[in-house]
Amino acid sequence: MSIEYLGLSEINGPLVVLEGVQDASFEEIVEITVDRTTKKLGRIIELYEDKAVIQVFEGTENMSLQNTHTKLTGHPMEIALSPKLLGRTFNGVGQPIDDLGTISGIKRNVNGSPLNPVSRKYPRNYIRTGISAIDALTTLIRGQKLPIFSGNGLPHDKLAAQIVKQASLGDNSSDEKFAIVFAAMGVKYDVAEFFRRTFEESGVADHVVMFLNLANDPVVERLITPKVALTAAEYLAFEQNMHILVILTDMTSFSEALREVSSSKGEIPSRKGFPGYLYSELATIYERAGIIDGVDGSVTQIPILTMPNDDITHPIPDLTGYITEGQIVLDRYLHGQAIYPPINVLPSLSRLMKDGIGEGYTRADHQDVANQLFSSYAKVGQARALASVIGEDELSPIDKKYLTFGRAFESEFVGQGEVENRTIETTLNKGWELLRLLPKEELDRINTAILEQYYNAAE
């Protein structure tokens, strides 16, 4: 028999306090009825003696201390799961918003279960995005978490949509099942419509699961959205044996929602006003990626975050960098040069790249080409710095070649069309085409046998 509690003792922003609570548990879901008509869901986030602090997902509008009835459900936040998730669109707490009816199936706790480190399998093989700067230089490996660091006004939304449209398990993995879980937090309505329309028009919507938390949706809902999305991803990967790519945008909105709720609770702030547990909250989300030994599926994450004031030392990108295995950095200068996608390859990094490329995965020359492109592009920066002092006409012949290489690299390799989907062969061949702009003796990061095989090869 469930107990129903009448009234509240305190309302503070998205939080309410209930007194006289018995047998409640942390993270338990409660059902709140306002004026006997409006139903809302909440989550217990703090317990002290007989008091419970509850986050109200739909916000506390129209609530007063006397007009509520609160009932404890006895279980944490859960989401219904089935293979019919594919092609569906949900709100931030997993409720359908596509008028296709509810999902009936097994229910899972959105907080997930920790993966036993012993059962984790080391990530291997790659996911092809069709974007050269990612596939060649910061390769995305199955089971990896590889964030995109962006800034306000940069085209991270276009890049995310392009990755969803083009992502695949490579050219030789057509027999494996692949799907995408897309979660948007705090996005404007027109941005959400852009994603929904883009996926439908490109024909990929049938293997995408969307979770949308809009900017005008309750702040508290933003905290649950990535957990709901990852619960769906884990079900599809580890119970339906699918390879799942999870795209989370924007983790900055998630973190700012966490800061707002923390402030409402009166907690002592840390850097930039964020709570001291921001690191553990981000880790709880990011660490839900990986591969389990004996299971055919995998969960790969691409979290997207906008760096306030383009500051990569801000707590959100700073802590994200500690937890994840690299980063893809979007650059405002390249964006100003009309280069899309404006990926700055020098600060970008994929720490697991070396274990999922090369012979048997992509092509034998992949690692050498990547090393040489990084090295040569770094020298472009040195040549440009020198040219800004003495003028381009005074540069040595080899420095002028590096300037030519740099311009071609940015416009032809990094830059590509929004609908251009390059195979790994096309990408690597494009890399060799650019390296041929430099003298053979300058290519000192490539194995001699590979250099002889590809440098003079016909295109």
Automatic annotation (TrEMBL):
GO terms for molecular function: ATP binding; proton-transporting ATP synthase activity, rotational mechanism; proton-transporting ATPase activity, rotational mechanism. The keyword Secreted does not apply. PROSITE patterns: ATPASE_ALPHA_BETA. Residues 355-455 form the ATP synthase A/B type C-terminal domain. The keyword rRNA-binding does not apply. SUPFAM superfamilies: P-loop containing nucleoside triphosphate hydrolases. Keywords: ATP synthesis, Hydrogen ion transport, Ion transport, Transport. Residues 130-350 form the ATPase F1/V1/A1 complex alpha/beta subunit nucleotide-binding domain. Residues 9-64 form the ATPase F1/V1/A1 complex alpha/beta subunit N-terminal domain. GO terms for biological process: proton motive force-driven plasma membrane ATP synthesis. InterPro entries: ATP-synt_VA_C, ATPase_a/bsu_AS, ATPase_F1/V1/A1_a/bsu_N, ATPase_F1/V1/A1_a/bsu_nucl-bd, P-loop_NTPase, V-ATPase_su_B/beta. Produces ATP from ADP in the presence of a proton gradient across the membrane. The V-type beta chain is a regulatory subunit. HAMAP family: ATP_synth_B_arch (MF_00310). Belongs to the ATPase alpha/beta chains family. This is V-type ATP synthase beta chain. The lineage of its organism: Bacteria, Bacillati, Bacillota, Clostridia, Lachnospirales.
